[in-house]
Amino acid sequence: MNLIPNQKSRLNAVLLIVSAAFSTNSFAHSAGATTDANHANANATVLAAVSCFDDGNGEPEGLFTQIKDLSEPEEGLLISIQLYKGLKAISDTDTISGDADYSEGVQLNAGPGVYQMIVNKTDAGARKFDVIWHCMTEDHTHTGTDITLRQFQ
Description:
There is one protein chain. This protein is mainly beta and 153 residues long. The protein has one domain (30-152): Jelly Rolls (Sandwich). Helix content is 13%, strand content 46%. The chain is built from 1 helix and 9 strands; from the N terminus they run αβββββββββ. β4 and β5 (88-94) form a beta hairpin.
């Protein structure tokens, strides 16, 4: 009995792992930054326009997003994200600063087109954060997603 897999089996396993990693990364949309770096603007806001379109994977149902506060915890200082399109809006907050976890995540279902994404915070002080965004079809397939930064404070 041969307990060591043959070369072809090992190669197939490696190819499977590499292709899975590539497919995960090829659909990733995330970015990080620090808002209010001078610790002086309690109203510092980041604004971006996210375009959701059919790139061949299907018509977008909506935009999904999560946010993660990478800063050290500071009493009363949280970071949030809001999405709006037309007459619909939704928001999400990372309620635990400095942990390794993203917020629960939210999806605004307003079809194809341009969504506005806003990041803000509850008080003056620098906040280092990371945001994930994906345009998704009704069956949760990633579809066309572009982003344009409009404002950064």
